[in-house]
Each structure stands twice: as C-alpha cells, then as structure tokens.
Amino acid sequence: MKHLLSTRDLSRTDALAILDTAEQMAAVSQREVKKLPVLRGRTVVNLFFEDSTRTRISFEAAAKRLSADVINFSAKGSSVSKGESLKDTAQTLAAIGADAVVIRHGSSGAPARLAGSGWIDAAVLNAGDGTHEHPTQALLDAFTMRRHWARLHGTASTGTDLTGMHVVIVGDVLHSRVARSDLWLLRTLGASVTLVAPPTLLPFGVESWPCEISYDLDEALETGPDAVMMLRVQGERMNSAFFPSVREYSRRWGFDDVRLGRLDTLGLTDTILLHPGPMNRGLEISSRAADSPRATILEQVSNGVSVRMAALYLLLAGENTPAAPATLENA
C-alpha cells in the first residue's frame, strides 16, 4: 500500500491492518510520553485547499506524535491564490523532500491525480476530495464502531470486523464524501448499511450501491440499528433548494430529542450516535442528542489521531501489516 486514496480500494486485510495498528497507537497515546521515534527524519506536508479543523489538526498531531517534521500548507495566502497549478505546487513539495502529502481538495480525484502523476515521489493520503471520498474519516468511524461492537460482545477489538452490525447513515448523502467512504469500508468489514435521506439528497445511481435505501428515518430506526451516523447538511455545496425548509428537514430527517427518546422506547439501549463534524446543532442533530451518553462524537475526534498515526506509520515505515506490539511499546 503506497497511497491511501479511497476505502473502495481497501481490502479487508488492509483495512484490518490499519485498524489493528490504530489500536496500538491508541495505547501509545495513553502513555505519559506520547511520542514515537518511528518517523524521525521524515517530512509530512498537510496540503489543504479547503478549510478544515479536525482533519488538519488530527493529521498534524498524528505526524508529530510519530516524530515526523510537519509542514502545514494552506491555499489561502500561498501561490495557489496567484494561479499556481497543482503540478507546480507538487513539484515544489518534491523539491523540499516531502515523504508524505496529506491533501484536501475541492475537486474529486485530485489526490489520485497527484498520486499517479509522477510529479512527486511521496505517499499521498486523501483528506477529502470534493464529493468523492474521505478515507481516514471512514476508518476512524469504523474504529469507533468496532470498539463499541467489541465492548458489546465482550471481545477484543483487534483482529475483529463488523460482521452482523447494522449502520444507518442519515442526511446529505449527495454531497457527502464521508457517506461514500463509510459505505464502502463498512461493507468490506461485514456491516450492513441503510442510507436515509430525502430523494433530492441521494446521488444518481444510488440504487446500485451495496446498501438499503430509505426516505423515512423513523422507519429506519424501527429496523434496530446498532449505530446511527448523522451527516452534516453541506449548504456550501448546494446551488439550489434541496428541501423545503430547515424546519422541515429537521422534523423529517434530523435526530431530535423525540427520536433520542424513541431509541429507549424501541429497546435500542446500545445504539450509538456518530457525526463526522462540524455539526449544525438543531438541524441534523439536536444538542441533547449530540451531548448524550450515546454520542461518540468526541471519541471519534480522539480516535482520528490514532487512525491517522496508523496510516502514516504503515505508509512511511515500510510496513503493510500491523506493527508488533513490542515494536511500539519499546520505541
């Protein structure tokens, strides 16, 4: 595995390798000294053409905990604002000796273009491209779900998949790269997935995707999901009205206080709530639901550092299988 561009390209073996290594990285993060020397002398560039908080900071923290040198690049205030092309930017990064490039770009396919261009000889990690994919977000979501699934069944997380788990993904699927990455990865790991959205917020051809489709959140909850992922309504990517009003969307597809209570009524005491962030409180999820014990939103953020440490380690340390625990513990 030279690059991490899409969860659709990940085999079950590769996906479990990343998740199992992330478990070891999470253990390292609990130590008093949270750093490992495994990427000392390597340079990781965060190349962000779109705004980001969680993903950029998470990748920066991950790289620094592995002792890599980190360069943060933002399109705003750089030569990109003067018209510099992706090719020229990439060649500049190659000239300074970048070993890995974490790229977020507004155009779908930009990370794949960078990885296959020959402009730079570095590992490329997709941190979100257009409405295409966001693989590390899906991996941290799966990591969070797998830990919950293991606790529920009294088993160890390492080495296990999500076979038997039912996940409902709700909201703006049309514009969500997270929904796509989550779907492919969850299916690879054995989970079943139901997408819930208004018809106008489902992509063309979604009927051919390996999932169930529903337009009614309440009906989907009655199927007994083990996890519910609420998606952000991406107003910045919408050029026209995709639903009648904010109030109507929240009433029909938002996870409000009533639906939070309904989980107990349905006997779904172990169902967890996820959200990739940033949240539009009161629109796709209520504050009470977001702050409830069921919510794993902050846990997802914390897990994101471990998952991204694992991805960087496996790509840059020349490993394609999980690191031996002793290797990391003695580092």
UniProtKB/TrEMBL annotation:
The keyword Cell cycle does not apply. InterPro entries: Asp/Orn_carbamoyltranf_P-bd, Asp/Orn_carbamoylTrfase, Asp/Orn_carbamoylTrfase_sf, Asp_carbamoyltransf, Asp_carbamoyltransf_Asp/Orn-bd. Residues 2-146 form the Aspartate/ornithine carbamoyltransferase carbamoyl-P binding domain. It comes from the Bacteria. It catalyses: carbamoyl phosphate + L-aspartate = N-carbamoyl-L-aspartate + phosphate + H(+). Carbamoyl phosphate binds at residues 54-55, 104, 134, 137, 277-278. Pathway: Pyrimidine metabolism; UMP biosynthesis via de novo pathway; (S)-dihydroorotate from bicarbonate: step 2/3. L-aspartate binds at residues 82, 177, 232. SUPFAM superfamilies: Aspartate/ornithine carbamoyltransferase (SSF53671). Signal peptide: none annotated. GO terms for molecular function: amino acid binding; aspartate carbamoyltransferase activity. One of its GO terms (biological process) is amino acid metabolic process. Keywords: Pyrimidine biosynthesis, Transferase. GO terms for cellular component: cytosol. Residues 164-315 form the Aspartate/ornithine carbamoyltransferase Asp/Orn-binding domain. Heterododecamer (2C3:3R2) of six catalytic PyrB chains organized as two trimers (C3), and six regulatory PyrI chains organized as three dimers (R2). Catalyzes the condensation of carbamoyl phosphate and aspartate to form carbamoyl aspartate and inorganic phosphate, the committed step in the de novo pyrimidine nucleotide biosynthesis pathway. HAMAP family: Asp_carb_tr (MF_00001). This is Aspartate carbamoyltransferase. It comes from Arthrobacter sunyaminii. The gene is pyrB.
